[in-house]
Amino acid sequence: MTRTTIDYGIDLGTTNSSIAVLNGVDVEVIKNNDDQSESTPSAVWIDRRDRLYVGDRAKKKNEIDPANTCIEFKGKMGMTDQLKVFANGNRSMTPEQLSAEVLKSLKGDVAQRYGEDLRAAVITVPAAFELSACEATGQAARLAGLAHAPLLQEPTAAALAYGFQSTADNAFWLVYDLGGGTFDAAVVNIRDGEFTVVNHRGDNTLGGKLIDWKIVEDLLVPALARQHRFADLRRGNPQSLAVIAQLKQAAEQAKIRLSRAEFADITIELKDDRGELVEFEYDLRRADVERLTEPFIVRSVNLCRKALEERGLGAAGIEKVLLVGGPTLSPYLRERLADPGDGLGIPLDHSRDPITAVATGAAVFAGTQRLDSMEPLPVPAVGEYAVDLAYEPMGPESEPLIGGRVSGADTEGFAIQLVNLGAQPPWSSGKIVLDSDGTFTTTLWAERGRANTFHIELTDAAGTRRKVTPDRLTYRVGTVDSQPLLTNSIGVGLENNEFSELVKRGTPLPARRSHRLWTTVTLSRSENQGFIRIPILEGEHPRADRNRRIGRLEIDPGQVTRDVPAGSEVEFSVVIDQSRLVVARAYIPLLDEEFEHVANLRTETAPAHDELVGRIRAEKHRLSEARTQAADLGDARAQALLATIDAEATVADVEALADAARADPDAAAACGKRLRDLQAAIDGVEEVMAWPKKVAEAKEVMTAVREIVQARGDSNDERTLSSLESATREAITAHDTDLLSRRMRDLWELAGDVLDRTNELPVIRFDHLRSLQPEMRDRDEAAQLIATGGKAVEQGDFRTVREVNRQLERMLPEPPPLDLSSTVVNGS
User: Fold this and answer.
1) Among the listed ranges 49-53, 477-481, 725-729, 793-797, which one has the minimum average pLDDT value?
2) Phi/psi at 511 (nearest 5 deg)?
3) What InterPro entries is this protein classified in (predicted)?
4) Which of 179, 359, 389, 601 could form a disulfide with 132 if both were Cys (CB 3.0 to 4.6 A apart)?
5) What percent of the residues of the chain are helix, what percent strand, and what percent coil, each to the nearest 5?
C-alpha cells in the first residue's frame, strides 16, 4: 500500500520493545517472528559462532551465559561510552548499537508481516530522558537504517493511545507510566480536539526492574545462602554475576505471575561455590513483594502529586489516571493508586493494554507525520508536475484547510481537484483554478472513524488530466498533540557552582536560547594551552552540581585562529527541536567565528565505588545533622520532608546501589543519580529550616546585645537598642531574610560600639588576630607583634593594642572578618 504518513510507532523499552502500525484509525501491534508475541525482550546474545540474536532467546540466555548477553541497555544510552564486551567473537558494542539491533529486529517483523522495508518510524522516549539519551536514541535509529525517526515522549504516546478517538473536552488526565526502568507522570489537558502535556515529573531510575532487584537482594539471596554453600553471594561480587543473573530472571518471571496469584514458586538450578549444581526452591509471596514495592510506589505517588500541585490541581480536577507499563498490572499497585489517603484517589483507566499502549500511541502520532515533508520536493520531469502541499494529516476538524503550490511547466489555466472516493456518497472539492503562481487553497470534508484518502487530480486549460506527484493525501479526524513541551530546564554551570538557566521547563518546542558568558582562562593557539569548557546541565536546582550534566561544549586551541584571552565574551546558544534533540553553538565575537557540533552530549562517567562511598558518608552526616536541627527547632515542614526521605528509602537505595557498583557499572550510574536525589532532598530540608534557624539566631543576638548594653551602655544605647529590637521583630514578621540579616548586623555594630568605648573590643580583635598567625605573610614578625600586644593587654595599654591590631591585619591576605557573635554569645 502507498503511505503518505509514517504510520509506524516503536516503543523502545528497557525490558521489552514493541512496534505498531496505524491502518485507517485502527492500530495493530505487530507480533514478532520469534514467538508471535506483541512485545520483544530488549536483549542481545552472541553465540559461539559470533551470530547475534535479539529477543526472548537472548533474554533466556542471560541466565546461563551473562558474559555473552546484554539486557536493560536503554538506560545507558547517552550516559557513557561504556561498551558491552561479549566473550564470544571478541565483539564489543555500545548501548546505541545494542538498541539498533532491537530496532532491526522490529523492522524484520514488519518486513515479514507487510513486506515493507521500513525506513521511517516514530520512536518513543521517557519524558524524563536526558537530552543526551534522546540524541543517542536518534543515533540508534540511524544505525538501524531508519532515515527518519521523530522522537515522541512516552506519556504523550500513552495519552494518544487512550484518547485518539475520544470525544472528551476540557478534561485533565494523569498519565501514570511505570516502565521497566523509568517512570513518568504527566498531566494532560484535552480541549477542542487537541491535548497538551501541561506538566511532567519523572525519574529515570525508577522502574519495574528495581522491584526485581529488591526481590533478589532481600528475599532470594538470603534464602539461597541459607540453603546452600554461597560464602559471598551478592550483586557487588564479580564472582556471583552468573548466579545473580539467574535469580534476577527468576524474580522477574515470578513477579509477573503474582499479578494473578497469591504466590509463585521458583525452582532453578545453580552452581554453588564448589561448582556443583544445586536446586533452589522458593515460594515468592505477593505480600512480601508488596512490602518491597512500597517505597517505589511512594516515590511515584509523590512525583504525581508534585506534578499536580505545580499546576494547581487536586484529585477532584483529574478525570482519570491512564495506566501504562507492565508493572501497573499489579493489583496492589492499582489498589494503592486508587486509595484517596496514601495514593491518588483518582479513578483508574486500564482499558488499554498497558504493555503495548505506548507503541499504540506512537503509531497514532506517526499518522500525523507526513512522509513527503521529510524529503525535498522532487523536480518534475518534462510534461509532469509536482505539488507542494501544506496541511496537517490529522486533526480535530472534519473540514480541514489545505493549501499548496503546483510546480512544473506553465500552469496558466490549470485547475486542481481533490476527491474522496471512500466517502458515502463520494465527495469532491470541485475544480479549483490555480493562481498565477500555481498556488491554491481549499477546505476538505472528512469523516471521523476512518482514514480519508483524497486523490489529487490536475487538469490543464483544455481539461486534460496531467500527471502530478504526489497524487493523493490522507487525513484522519482525531485528537492530536498540540505542541510538545520541554520537560526539564536546560542551562549551563558557572564557575561559582551556580546554574544559569537558558530554557525553562515547560517551554514549547522547538526552542532557541542564547546566553553571554566570559572565559576564565586564556586559550593560547601558539602554546597549545587552555580549553573553553561549558558544562551543559539539565535540572531545576540553583546549585549546578545538583543537576544532571548532559554534556559540555568544548573548544580547544587547535580550533581557534588566534589566542583568546581570559575574560573574552562567548555567546552560547542551544537549539532544541520537537524531538528534544539539541544543537549547541558558541560564537566568539573577538574571532568573529561560530563553533558548531562541539557539544559532547554525554553525561559524566559513572563514579567509582570508593567515591560513591565517600559521598554517601558525607550525605548521611548531613542528614543526621538535619534531623537533629529539625527536632531542636520543632519544624513540622522539615520533619515532613525527612519522613519522605525515609518513606522512599532513599538512603537504603544509594547504599545498596553503591555495593552493587563494585561489579556493576550500571548500578554505579544509577547510584550517582539517586545520590543527587538524596542531596537535593537534604537541601530541601535545610532550606525550609533556614528561616527558623535565622529567627532563632536573631533572638539570640537580641539577648546577647541587650546583656552588653545593660552591663556597659548608657541611656542613648538603651534607646538605640529598643529601636533596633523593634526593627528586628518587624523583619521577622515580614519573613524577609535579607532585611533580618541587616538588622542583626546593626545590633552587632551597636554592641561593638559599646565594647569599643570600654576598650574590650580591641582586646577581642587582638585575640582573634592572634589565632590567625599561621595565615600571616611573615610569621616571625607576627610573633613579635603578638608578644607586644599581649604585654599591652596585661598593662591596659589599649592604644598599643589597637596599633598592633592594625599591623597584624596588614599581614593577612584579606582583612579578617571578626565574628563578634561567637565571642559574646559564649560569654568571653
Assistant:
1) 477-481
2) -145, 150
3) ATPase_NBD, Heat_shock_70_CS, HSP70_peptide-bd_sf, Hsp_70_fam
4) 601
5) 40, 25, 35
769, amino acid identity:
L
114: three-class secondary structure by DSSP: helix
The torsion angle over the Cα atoms of residues 152, 153, 158 and 163, rounded to 10 degrees, is -70
- pLDDT at residue number 597: 54
| Burial class, 150, CB count within 10 angstroms (exposed 0-12 / middle 13-18 / buried 19+) | buried
Name the residue with cell 512485545: 39
* Residue 599 pLDDT greater than 60, yes or no: no
Name, in order, each residue with C-beta under 8 angstroms of 638's C-beta and a sequence gap of 6 or more. Answer: 626, 629, 630, 685, 688, 689
Query: Whole-angstrom Cα distance, residue 274 to residue 278?
Result: 10
- The predicted-structure confidence for 281-330, as pLDDT tens digits, reads as follows 999 999 999 999 999 999 999 999 999 999 999 999 999 999 999 899 99
Residue 582 phi/psi, 5-degree rounding, is: -120, 145
Rounded Cα gap, residues 80 and 73, in angstroms:
11
Q: How far is residue 545's CA from residue 268's CA, in Å, rounded to a whole number?
A: 45
- Rounded Cα–Cα distance for residues 662 and 141 (Å): 32
Per-residue model confidence (pLDDT) at position 223: 93
Domains and CATH numbers, the chain: 8-207+295-366 (3.30.420.40), 208-294 (3.90.640.10), 385-481 (2.60.40.10), 490-600 (2.60.34.10), 759-828 (no CATH)
**CA distance linking residue 94 with residue 102, whole number of Å:** 13
> What is the pLDDT of the chain when averaged over all its residues?
88
DSSP state letters, 259-295: TSSSEEEEEEEEE-TTS-EEEEEEEEEHHHHHHHHHH
Per-residue pLDDT at 825? 42
Distance CA 547, CA 489 (A): 10
Question: Residue 598 pLDDT > 60, yes or no?
Answer: no
Taking alpha carbons only, the member of 271, 216, 201 closest to residue 677 is 201
Mark out the alpha helices in 634-713 (DSSP H runs): 636-647, 650-660, 665-712
Where does the pLDDT of residue 30 fall: very low under 50, low under 70, confident under 90, or very high at 90 and above? very high
Closest CA to 343 of 312, 305, 306, 310: 305
Taking the C-alpha atoms of residue 194 and residue 479, their distance in angstroms, rounded to an integer, is 5
Which residues, including other chains, have CB under 8 Å from residue 423's CB and lie 6 or more apart? 445, 447, 452
Instruction: Please choose, from the candidates 161, 114, 160, 149, the residue with its C-alpha nearest in 3D space to the C-alpha of residue 2.
Output: 114
Nearest to 552 by CA among 596, 500, 599: 599
User: Per mean pLDDT, which of 99-108, 130-139, 689-698, 723-732 is the most reliable?
Assistant: 99-108
Residues 6+ apart with CB under 8 A from 69: 43, 44, 45, 58, 59, 61, 62
List all residues 6 or more positions away from 564 whose beta carbon is below 8 Å from its beta carbon. 519, 522, 523, 530, 532, 588, 590, 591
- pTM for this predicted structure: 0.77
DSSP state of 330: -
The CB-side HSE value for 800 (13 A sphere, CA atoms) comes to: 13
Task: Write down the pLDDT at residue 79.
Answer: 67
pLDDT of residue 142: 95
Separation between Cα atoms, residue 702 and residue 740, nearest integer Å: 12
- 566 phi, psi to nearest 5 deg: -60, 145
Max Cα distance, the chain (Å):
121
